[in-house]
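Work Package 3 committed the consortium to producing structural models of liganded targets before the mid-term review. Because experimental data for this complex are still outstanding, the team generated a predictive model from sequence and the ligand definition alone, so that downstream docking and mutagenesis planning could proceed in parallel. The input record is reproduced below exactly as it was submitted to the modelling pipeline, together with the SMILES string for NAP.
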Amino acid sequence: MIVLSVVFVWCVCKVVFIELFGMLYFNMYTKIKEIKDQALFIFIKMMWIFGRKGASGFSISSTAEDVTNGIDGTDLTAIVTGATSGIGTETARVLAMHGVHVVMAVRNTENGRKVKETILNETPNAKLDVMELDLSSLASVRNFAAEFVSSGLPLNILINNAGVMAPPFTLSKDKIELQFATNHLGHFLLTQLLLETMKRTSHDQKKEGRIVNVSSEAHRFAYKGIYFDNLNDESSYNSIYAYGQSKLANILHANELTRRFKENGVNVTANALHPGSIATNLLRYHSLVDGVVDWVGKYFLKNIPQGAATTCYVALHPHVNGVSGKYFMDSNVAQPNSYAEDAELAKELWDISLTMVAP
Ligand SMILES: NC(=O)c1ccc[n+]([C@@H]2O[C@H](COP(=O)([O-])OP(=O)(O)OC[C@H]3O[C@@H](n4cnc5c(N)ncnc54)[C@H](OP(=O)(O)O)[C@@H]3O)[C@@H](O)[C@H]2O)c1
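The resulting structure, written out as tokens with the ligand in place, is given here.
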């Protein structure tokens, strides 16, 4: 902290000195901005470096490689949805680096193959498959699951990562609001269809299975709980609240899975997490905000390796053995809001989701 304070005071003094004494010959504005930016950059980076570690021994600045250091995943098979971009790509890369057989479940298989090539360049013996999955289409989810099950592969880890954020009101192919359809319902059906494979794998290998739902702190911005009666109603649609609602659903889904697994003695855990705030393609529907986030992101936000840390921690780390129904942030257990802990709401969401995915 002393070093941090000294560096910060030094930079501020430098700025003040320049401002007071007019030491710049030309382009004063640019110079001051440059120095202020440097000071800010150093200050924020020092905050990361000295970021407090939580009970897990990891912090906000830990990367996916940090939290999986020394872990052997060679006996494991994982599905990562949305592995063509951002957190999903980094998650697939780091799991594959540890020997996990990663099935990249992606809607654009050409992009999926490019990501696979990039990972293989770095880790030539990585075990990676690319399979088509459009989570906004229940038919596509069924096709994916059928193909995966018929491949005979085991399944230890399911990472429900793919997501869309705050698009203009859109209905999916199944006439369901796009964020609820993609972020929650597609993953709900996917999980249902893969559960038997996960149970069988955990039984055969005598090893716990893990379901990891990538949620968000935005679950706090949900309408009020889940808007069951207005899920597909354009007139009451608010893109941010609807995003929050779908992310709240991710936590409730993990909690209800946990309750059912415990009731039935299933050796599979289900947890949800907030990855942090990271400049990815998630803001693609808001180009102005996206530009600003890209610009200031390097100062205030996590980078992508840090953004994938909590997912990789929850998916692989032995500290998480037997832990289920929890919400994680910065690779530590965190506290979601009260709606996320409402067991009745979780059950209601489960029942309604089941009805909605019924063929
Ligand atoms: N970035 C953040 O600050 C932040 C914060 C909190 C939570 N999250 C959560 O983190 C997760 C990953 O987001 P990200 O930041 O990595 O965003 P991203 O870079 O936009 O990646 C999203 C991924 O989801 C895929 N996807 C979108 N719609 C899909 C669909 N219908 N079917 C299959 N795949 C689909 C995208 O595929 P394409 O490449 O084909 O578009 C992409 O691979 C999301 O669940 C998001 O809600 C992110």
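Reviewers should note the following from the model. DSSP finds twelve helices and eight strands in the chain. These observations will guide the Year 2 experiments.
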